[in-house]
Amino acid sequence: MTLTLLDWRRRVAALYAAARASTDAEKGWQVWRDGRDELFAGHPDSPLDEAARSGFPGLPFAPYDPALRFEAVLEPADPQRLEIPTASDGVVPFDRIGTVDLGELGRLDVWWLGSYGGGVFLPLRDGSAGNGTYGGGRYLLDTVKGADLGGDGGRLVLDLNFAYHPSCTYDPRWSCPLAPEGNRIGEAVAAGEQLPPGGWY
């Protein structure tokens, strides 16, 4: 670990803070997208290797759809623990803290990272996985890493336009927790980060 990784995380957190502060959700999303492209293109901790950064055109995204932004109530769910083995961090524990209802799209489990400090984690694997988006799914929230759109009064802001690929999408040396069964929906969600034709590696 290096201070450049700390800088990456600070910058990611600042992008989400700017998105939360925006009075226009789509403009906040655009600020987040532009900042994410800047980090991927030039930051030393970009998940893109040097060759992929050369001529980097920006991350492909579906157009913003305001109907895919939710202020979802965190509802109770039976306790469940996942223990995810990783290549670099050993076994990472997650505890289910509830579920959220996304209307016609269905219900998703919400997880708490059971390691030091903790944080909310919400992955999503929709019907586009393996055909337009990464086969293992994308992330909506990962508050340990600053990916947090806010919420209050027992609600979480979940904007599927902010769905982003984990680092393992871009380079196989990374290992990432993937979406478990309770975070999979059959319908393809035409929102968020997409894969370029041919993938990244």
Can you give a write-up of this model?
- By secondary structure, this protein is an alpha+beta fold.
- The chain has a domain at 61-183.
- Helix content is 20%, strand content 22%.
- The protein has helices at residues 3-21, 25-42, 50-53; strands at 69-73, 81-86, 90-101, 107-113, 120-124, 138-142, 155-159.
- The protein has a five-stranded antiparallel sheet, with no helix packed on it.
- A hairpin with a 6-residue loop joins β4 (107-113) and β5 (120-124).
- α1 runs antiparallel to α2.
- The longest helix is centred in the first third of the chain and has 19 residues, at 3-21.
- It is globular, with a radius of gyration of 16 Å.
- The two termini are 24 Å apart.
- The model has no long low-confidence stretch (mean pLDDT 92).
Task: Offer a quick outline of the entry.
This protein is α+β, with helices and mostly antiparallel strands and 201 residues long. It has three helices and seven strands; from the N terminus they run H-H-H-E-E-E-E-E-E-E.
Order of helices and strands: HHHEEEEEEE
What percent of residues are in strands? 15-25%
How many alpha or pi helices? 3
Number of strands: 7
> What is the 3D shape?
globular
Distance between the termini: 24 Å
Structural class: alpha+beta
Low-confidence stretches: none
Rg result: 16 Å
Describe the sheet with the most strands: 5 strands, antiparallel
- The level of helicity is 10-25%
Could you outline the blueprint of secondary structure elements for this entry?
Blueprint: H1 3-21, H2 25-42, H3 50-53, E1 69-73, E2 81-86, E3 90-101, E4 107-113, E5 120-124, E6 138-142, E7 155-159
Antiparallel strand pairs: 1-7, 2-3, 3-4, 4-5, 5-6
Helix pairs in contact: 1-2
